[in-house]
Amino acid sequence: MIIRPTYYAALGSATLTGIGLIYFFAAPITQQLHRWQLLPEPERFTQVYFTNPAQLPRTFEPDGKQTVQFTIRNLEHATKQYTYRVTVRSNVGARVATTGSLLLTQGQQRSLVKEVVMPSVEAQRVFVSVQVQQARSDPSHLQTETIHYITTNKSLASKERGTQ
Question: What is the pTM of this model?
Answer without folding.
Answer: 0.71
